[in-house]
Structure formats: C-alpha cells, structure tokens
Design the sequence.
C-alpha cells in the first residue's frame, strides 16, 4: 500500500470533518450564543473533538487487537464509510440538515461530536495510525492543523456563510464530496488488493 503524505492526511481529515459543508449547522448552533461567549464555546468544542480523535490515534491499535480486527478489514470499512459520507455530500437530503435552533449554547453535542469527531473522522485517524504507527506525531500534527481550520470556520461561520452565499457553499460541498468519493474508492481498492494478496 502506498505511503500517505502529511498533506494528503491533512486533506483527508479536512474532508471527513467537512467544516465548510457544515456551515449551516454551525450558524444555527451559534446563533443563540452570546457574542462574548462564542470564542469560549469554539475553543471548548474544538478541544473536545481533538481529544477524542487523539485518543483514537493513541489507542487505535489496541482497539483493533481487542476487537480482533485486521488492518485490511479496517481499510475496507473505512472506505465504505467515507464513500457513504461522500454520497451524502454530493446528494444531500432534500429537507436540509435537520438542525434546530437550540435554546442554549451547544455543549459537546452536536458540534464536537458527531459533527467534527464523527464516525468517519474516528475511522480515518484509526486507519492512518494502524497503517503507519511510526508516523504517529505526524498524524497528530495533521489533525491539529485540521482542528485549526475547523476552529476558524466555526468562529467565522456566520460571516463565511453570508460572504460565500448558499449556492457557492453548496457547490463547494459537492466538489469536496467528489474528491472524497475518489479517496474512498482508492481505499476500497487498496483493501481489496491486500485481501487478495493475503489469499495467494
């Protein structure tokens, strides 16, 4: 299997966390938060998401061993999950994202989990570390950089959404979904290739 570069890991993590595609949810969740509290909420939610994903990086291999899962099965499962996420990005539900306007400020759910540290992000960090555990801190750096982008997007979600407009935001999400689809298919092909090689 080909080695993953730092840049490709960062792009992959950015795609699966999908901060730009989640702009409408960010706006709705932050609308009722007092302006002086918003920076605190952003830092808290990003910190929680980073800690959850970092924990999966540290204990991912142990998790695989306990569950008796192979790296090949994880790669195929990760590809399937990413493919499903990509399909939802390219073909979203007709009734929007279903996010309500909360009466109170968000706490962990839904911003940190599952919007940022969702199943696809957890599977991705687990897959990165299981493939190349010696490069753990490189993956941590890619994750940290991704969290910085998510934090900036969350902090300026309302301004970004207003500046880009709904059509541009939607088009950007479709484009990211297309790229993620290609990544998912490649992961599936790599996993199938490894499985076939193990049988020969």
Sequence:
């Amino acid at each position: 299997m080909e080695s993953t570069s730092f840049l490709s890991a960062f792009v992959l993590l950015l795609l699966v966390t999908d901060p730009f595609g989640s702009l409408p949810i960010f706006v709705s969740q932050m609308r009722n938060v007092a302006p002086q509290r918003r920076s605190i909420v952003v830092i808290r939610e990003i910190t929680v998401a980073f800690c959850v994903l970092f924990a999966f990086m540290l204990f991912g291999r142990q998790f695989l061993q306990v569950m008796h899962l192979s790296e090949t099965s994880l790669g195929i499962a990760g590809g399937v999950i990413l493919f499903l996420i990509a399909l939802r990005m390219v073909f979203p539900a007709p009734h929007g994202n279903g996010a309500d306007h909360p009466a109170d400020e968000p706490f962990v759910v839904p911003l940190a989990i599952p919007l940022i540290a969702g199943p696809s992000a957890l599977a991705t960090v687990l897959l990165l570390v299981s493939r190349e555990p010696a490069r753990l801190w490189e993956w941590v750096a890619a994750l940290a950089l991704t969290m910085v982008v998510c934090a900036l997007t969350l902090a300026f979600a309302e301004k970004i959404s207003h500046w880009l407009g709904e059509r541009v935001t939607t088009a950007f999400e479709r484009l990211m979904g297309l790229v993620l689809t290609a990544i998912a298919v490649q992961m599936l092909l790599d996993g199938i290739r490894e499985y076939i090689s193990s049988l020969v």
